[in-house]
Amino acid sequence: xxxxxxxxxxxxxxxxxxxxxxxxxxxxxxxxxxxxxxxxxxxxxxxxxxxxxxxxxxxxxxxxxxxxxxxxxxxxxxxxxxxxxxxxxxxxxxxxxxxxxxxxxxxxxxxxxxxxxxxxxxxxxxxxxxxxxxxxxxxxxxxxxxxxxxxxxxxxxxxxxxxxxxxxxxxxxxxxxxxxxxxxxxxxxxxxxxxxxxxxxxxxxxxxxxxxxxxxxxxxxxxxxxxxxxxxxxxxxxxxxxxxxxxxxxxxxxxxxxxxxxxxxxxxxxxxxxxxxxxxxxxxxxxxxxxxxxxxxxxxxxxxxxxxxxxxxxxxxxxxxxxxxxxxxxxxxxxxxxxxxxxxxxxxxxxxxxxxxxxxxxxxxxxxxxxxxxxxxxxxxxxxxxxxxxxxxxxxxxxxxxxxxxxxxxxxxxxxxxxxxxxxxxxxxxxxxxxxxxxxxxxxxxxxxxxxxxxxxxxxxxxxxxxxxxxxxxxxxxxxxxxxxxxxx
Amino acid sequence: xxxxxxxxxxxxxxxxxxxxxxxxxxxxxxxxxxxxxxxxxxxxxxxxxxxx
Lengths: 489, 52
Fold this sequence. Notes:
The complex is a heterodimer. Chain A contains 10 helices and 26 strands. By secondary structure, chain A is an alpha/beta fold. The model of chain A has no long low-confidence stretch (mean pLDDT 96). Chain B is an all-alpha fold. Chain B has one domain (3-51). Chain A binds chain B through residues 239, 242-243, 245-247, 249, 251-252, 380, 384, 387, 412-416, 426-427, 429, 432, 434, 436, 454, 456, 458-463, 465-466, 488-489, and chain B through 4, 7-8, 10, 12-13, 15-19, 24, 26-30, 33-34, 36-37, 40-41, 43-44, 46-52.
């Protein structure tokens, strides 16, 4: 019997573990190590953040699902990897620290034959003074990154609405809390869901709304923007995005590195080097992501973290990490199999793999501050990568080390994205978009870098219906209910 | 003054496009959105299939 250990139980980790368990059967063991007791459908957190869904509707307990799948579940966080073993054993192992109630702080070494790092990101609130400490949210702003954060955000939003009903104007500031953030889409959704709720509450005229983002242009979204077919035209996402902001009367500050958060005020640096401040009564600022801080050690105990992980803490895989100028970036730089080049029994999936470079054009202020979005690799790409990695590991375990590795490069993978702009069965709207491929490939698609036959977007009620159906569909799939494998990632 | 014209008055919004009353009403017109729902699903399924 061989053992596969999956670190992380989010979209990528859960997909990898559940498919691997299904394909491997009872001959081999699958172990999941995740610090969380509950699975969270993160795309719906924005609806929790405006009080339109409860925490219970976007989460469920992992233990019974893993018991049903025959997966060994350890509620713990991974601390370090020993891919060569140690002086006490020749077998590779991962050291974990339990977070489960009653076992907090206890440690264990789990030996593995194969390991998949799908730890997701560390929410690096501490990167911006005042935004938080380490991975903990600070006191001045709210967040929708976790279900608990979203519940807190909803409470604060209700307080703001009550103030407006009492005649006090409120200033809303939504966006990114650092110059190197990704996940602008979540902030975009939260902004327009708040705007929608303020309209419903009859207080929109008492609110000033502003977007602050590290994007160099509206609609960059960490993908360098996109050209999509709308109304017979091929339109840059800048036009599409600015149009929605203008329609909803939301102003913007872009090319901004938020460098300080205080009570009721943020400080920022712009791409032209100027400094500014913006006041707020209610702010939701997405933190930058970093690797979770896993260490790696050689057999002799030496620190080999730099061999296994990139400086940002994400795991090196089969991408080309040679530093290059933007003009030399190629689709071929991006990883295909997500296998670690040094340790072939080690893979990474989802946010945990290190991208070879960003997708957007790199920018920095005259002061040398980098201000550009980092690549998104959440949602559909995370799921697809997780499944491809599960395929590869399963075949390696069943057929031996020369088995075929499955590929899922983001340069040949599309993504369907539905960005909510307000929840409601008959008055909700969402921007339904597809992009193909996620990472532009200018050799295959000269001009826009993408296939405009498969890159489109439109806003409307239909998009909202799709997002709402996907909420139930993906939670159904994640619970491994009958027919779950038929639902695509 | 129409709502979109009010918004165009604001300096940051002058260089984009803003939908008028008809375009906005179509976004929540249930009959039209049923059709768009079907079309969007087909388009998304094609992209999902191409990506696996």
